[in-house]
Amino acid sequence: MKKAIVNNVYWVGKVDWELRRFHGDEFSTNSGSTYNSYLIKEEKTVLIDTVWSPFDEEFVENLAGEIDLNRIDAVIANHGEVDHSGALPCLMKHIPNTPIYCTANAVKSLKGQYHQDWNFVVVKTGDKLDLGNGKELIFVEMPMLHWPDSMAAYLTGDNVLFSNDAFGQHIATNSLFNDTVDQCTLMNEAIKYYANILTPFSQILRKKLEEIVALNLPIDIIATSHGVIWRTNPMQIVEKYALWANDYKENQITVVYDTMWNGTKTLAEQISEGIRSADPDVTVKVFNITKSDINDVMTEVFKSKTVVVGSPTNSRSILHSVAGFIHMMKQLRFKNKKGAAFGCHGWSGEGVNIMSAMLADAGLEVIDEGLKNLWNPDEEAQQKAFQYGKTIAGF
Ligand code: FEO
After folding, report:
1. 129/370 Cα distance (integer angstroms)
2. For this structure, is 189 an active site residue?
3. Together in a domain, 148 and 240
4. Residue of the nearest CA to atom 3 in ligand 1?
5. What one-character DSSP code corresponds to residue 53?
6. What is the pLDDT of residue 42?
7. Among residues 244, 264, 289, which one ends one of the domains?
8. CA-35 nearest atom, ligand 1
9. For the chain, what is the domain count?
């Protein structure tokens, strides 16, 4: 069922209330998500993006209930990833000659996934599509936000920016707009989305935001491809992105560990107490990575100035849970963060050195040689961990 956004712009997407994992199992979507597709009905009728492939037939059936598919003059594919292009094969069977406007890279990604030689029309930044009634779509390439093929489309007259993944959040809602959902959930999901998906591209994003601002286009609505549409103070999310893209950190220190027989857990707790005692203003968060949602932890890492990582030494190495966690930090290319390592050992004790090297390789500034503890921490060792926490707070 289509829903009105503004004037002749309608939402024709899909709400996925059940979604809990995304990008395979890489990303947790505890609030579900939406795949937002938009129909513009001016003199020309244009469809912007589709939905994920499991919903392809439902999507096309619903769309056909709203409009004669043959009356669609153009499809805009802002991004080739399957959550937005997944219904294209089903749709294009009905309208095989309809032009698909997209970037040159999207031709590659769409052909690469669907192996179809559709009627592609390649567009670049500044290219326009006249919709009649005095309105046009202006295309803006958004390479690496977050794929090389990404772009946005701006609708003149109604001042709607169809931003695709940018400014999105994984929230399932059928109320459409940012002023209709819980604001705390909205901002938590928005920062989680940024931290886990867009952090590696922050430098590119900073330039793109400047470019968009320089275009001086009035923006009344930001219609993303996931979650709510920003219509009330839409620039609030642009301002947040400008903040988040600038090596974001708060006065927070996050301790992340795994433990075998609770020795390293004891160190983690003492370190956190030491940090707290040295700096009552700092936010301290502690996570056993095996008992936590790694994407939520990564959001806390995003907010942190320092990340303290612990693992016992196991088989001359560290636990795979902690290795995977540091690997993910490396993938996300966090900038301007400090790191430190700690852990218990019974025999050879390589773990702390290994973690320190991995943290440095992940781009964190390692503050010292870390804290090693032989066997289970006794009272003295716990005091040492407490003091180590105070040291970390001082950096
Ligand atoms: Fe990059 Fe929502 O797909």
Report:
1. 58
2. no
3. yes
4. 81
5. G
6. 98
7. 244
8. 2
9. 2
CB 376 within 8 A of CB 370: no
Q: Are residues 273 and 364 in the same domain?
A: yes
Tell me how far the alpha carbon of residue 84 lies from the centroid of ligand 1, in angstroms.
Answer: 7
The helix or strand, by DSSP H or E, that contains position 331, with its residue range, turns out to be helix 320-332
Both 141 and 86 in a single domain?
A: yes
> Do 186 and 283 reside in the same domain of the chain?
no
Per residue in 209-256, pLDDT tens?
Answer: 998 888 889 999 999 999 999 999 999 999 999 999 999 999 999 999
Give yes or no for residue 83 CB within 6 A of ligand 1. Answer: yes
**Which CATH number does the domain housing residue 328 bear?**
3.40.50.360
Same domain as 336, residue 196:
no
- To the query of whether residue 146 is one of the catalytic residues in this protein, the response is yes
pLDDT mean across residues, the chain: 97
Comparing C-alpha atoms, which of 84, 39, 42 is closest to residue 62? 39
Q: Is 368 annotated in the active site?
A: no
Q: Which of 197, 220, 244 is the last residue of a domain?
A: 244
pLDDT at 212: 85
Q: Is the CB of 49 under 6 A from ligand 1?
A: no
Which protein residue's CA is at the shortest distance from atom 2 of ligand 1?
Answer: 165
Q: Which pLDDT does position 142 carry in this prediction?
A: 94
Asked whether residue 15 falls in the same domain as residue 89, the answer is yes
Q: Whole-model pTM?
A: 0.96
Nearest CA to ligand 1 atom 1: 81
Are 173 and 303 in the same domain? no
Same domain, 230 and 333: no
Active site annotation includes 158: no
Residue range(s) defining the domain that contains residue 102 = 3-244
User: Which amino acid, one-letter code, is at 174?
Assistant: N
- The mean per-residue pLDDT over the stretch 47-65 comes to 98
226 lines ligand 1 (CB under 6 A): yes
Q: How many whole angstroms from 210 Cα to the centroid of ligand 1?
A: 22
159, exposed or middle or buried, with CB in 10 Å at 0-12, 13-18, 19+?
Answer: middle
**Spatial distance between the Cα atoms of 313 and 125, rounded to a whole number of angstroms:** 52
Distance 80 CA to ligand 1 centre (A): 8
Report the pLDDT value the prediction gives residue 293, as an integer from 0 to 100. Answer: 98
Residue 338's beta-bridge partner residues? 306, 365
